[in-house]
Amino acid sequence: MTGLYIHIPFCSGKCKYCDFVSFEGKEALHSQYVGAVSREMKMYAGMTFETLYIGGGTPSELSTANLKKLLLAVQEYFIRVREFAESTVEVNPESISRDKIILLHQFGMNRVSMGLQSFDDAVLKSLGRRHDAARFLSTFRDLRAVGFKNISVDLIAGIPWQGRESFAETLSKTISLSPEHVSVYGLEIGDASKFAGEGVQPDEDLARDNLETARAALEAAGYVHYEISNFAKPGFECRHNLNYWDNGEYVGVGCAATSYQGGIRKTNAPLLEHYCDAAFEDENLPLASCEKLAGKEKTGETLMLGLRKLSGLRLTDEMLLDFGAELSKLEKRGFITLTDGTAKLTRDGLYLSNEVFRAFVPPF
Hints:
The chain is an alpha/beta fold. 40% of the residues lie in helices and 22% in strands. Strands 9-10-8-7-6-5-4-1-11 form a 9-stranded mixed beta sheet, with helices on both faces. The protein has a 3-stranded antiparallel beta sheet with strand order 12-13-14, with no helix packed on it.
């Protein structure tokens, strides 16, 4: 399976925990950027993709006209949007209008991922979010009214000043809406984020407590915990992301986007103006890096990605040869189980996954 990812690096403003490649106050470049993305897509014209994911940043920051221009380019160089097995677009409540929702649905986008983070307005404001709970609810209802039957909602756990009761209420209200998919991420504070500059630290004990609460509540409501941070109603697991975790191939277009094909991983430069002006010819690709993964490094990445899934992964002879000792140590520490040739994270491993994954990345 191969996925197509399109990065839209625009935001109305940076959330206080975020240091992703995104830009605020660049509305004058939106149309030029969509044109550059279209030129890059032309390089891959005719390729077959099963999934489409438009992420960011905030894709819904684009105007209705620019969103239409982007989707028309996808159809020009690949297939009609409605023919993708799964097509996801990320949106934020403050920037997605009913006109944009109707446009996305008319083109055949079939999955929407929306950032809620919390139902507590004071918490939202403290995170630097630009919507309130009422706006999220209004947007969710608009998505349903227009016809979207696959909606994913993002929540954040481990916010130091959010009480357990507030988090539990957010969960309860989210479940009452019955979205098809829920992602619950522990608060991560980027090194270049506003929170980092203020010395804010996530509360890891609270994050684990919140995540345990989320797991119990969501599973009781019929959701399947299928990846470290992700829960879905049966049959609504994110196919695009499953391809990542299965170490499948994908093409990423846009500023700072990453592609992985034939064991080669390349990442576009994170320079917005440079990307907008790129000619996208072989001798003028705006790359920040290009590397070929092979040997133990490639095996380690396959293990690291595959272990994110609650179902784990089947161990190959190559995995056992390269990382047999490390796997045994992780099992003795209670972080993974090794049963019938399959490795899986334990409950402790889920909450200390970064420590587990360090065993599979250089230096070995």
